[in-house]
């Protein structure tokens, strides 16, 4: 029995979406993509993808559609709004919703999509632009087993790990919020540790080498501190992403009166950085909230 090849779509060709779309093309899956930024569309076209003029045009072509936008409001607009993808998709097609959202928001988004005869996977992602570009993201997914079965060839193309967290919509998003809690707290802790060490006279590069060989190391310390050492705050993941994501974590816990003291403090740190005009810089720029710290500078001058 011959299996019909799937066609894929990606709405949102930002740092993660472009890598996902390119990985689909590289796997031989015919793929359509849309982004309101024409530069992103051109980058996708250069990788062999079909550039669509609207989410609806992507939906009309896709058996499996990845929605890789920033938040629930953008996902609702891209999928259900005017020229949204869902209205153009054939029954039985799969929507994979990848934005980091509160579980309640994802359940509300899924309802009209399921009622339209489509399949839905609550599938937030992790791994950053680098893993997306190589087809090695992690997907924290929940949804109907039939949706997983249909989306499997697409997941094989874009992900190193797909965790099936069961059929309940919202389960994937809850796990993603736990991941974002840890990621945000670890970045904030790494920034605080570096600022503290530098203020106490430590050589930044030597400090990095010692900590990464010691028990105090973390994945985020090892990944983000080189940005500080290189005075490189070009955003791979921006400060404002963690203002948003830690805000979602804190808000969801607050609604059920569950205390998250470390999350609250990290959220305040990222919020302070954003208020200082650093919102679009790399999230490692949270280190800049500490006054009087001579951070590494590419021109050799102290930032003060």
TrEMBL record:
- What is the uppermost EC class here? oxidoreductase
6-phosphogluconate dehydrogenase NADP-binding domain: from which residue to which, for each copy?
A: 9-164
Tell me the superkingdom of the source: Bacteria
Transmembrane ranges? none
Q: Is this entry keyworded DNA repair?
A: no
Alphabetically ordered keywords of this record? Carbohydrate metabolism, NAD, NADP, Oxidoreductase
Which terms does the record give in the GO molecular function aspect? NAD binding; NADP binding; oxidoreductase activity, acting on the CH-OH group of donors, NAD or NADP as acceptor
Provide the 3-hydroxyisobutyrate dehydrogenase-like NAD-binding domain boundaries.
170-289
The EC number(s) attached to this protein equal: 1.1.1.411
* Active-site residue numbers: 176
User: What reactions does this protein catalyze?
Assistant: L-threonate + NAD(+) = 2-dehydro-L-erythronate + NADH + H(+)
Family matches, as InterPro entries: 6-PGluconate_DH-like_C_sf, 6PGD_dom2, 6PGDH_NADP-bd, HIBADH-like_NADP-bd, HIBADH-related, LtnD, NAD(P)-bd_dom_sf
Annotated family: Belongs to the HIBADH-related family. L-threonate dehydrogenase subfamily.
Quote the function comment for this protein.
Catalyzes oxidation of L-threonate to 2-oxo-tetronate. Can use either NAD(+) or NADP(+) as cosubstrate, with a preference for NAD(+).
This protein is called L-threonate dehydrogenase
What lineage is this protein's organism placed in?
Bacteria, Pseudomonadati, Pseudomonadota, Alphaproteobacteria, Hyphomicrobiales
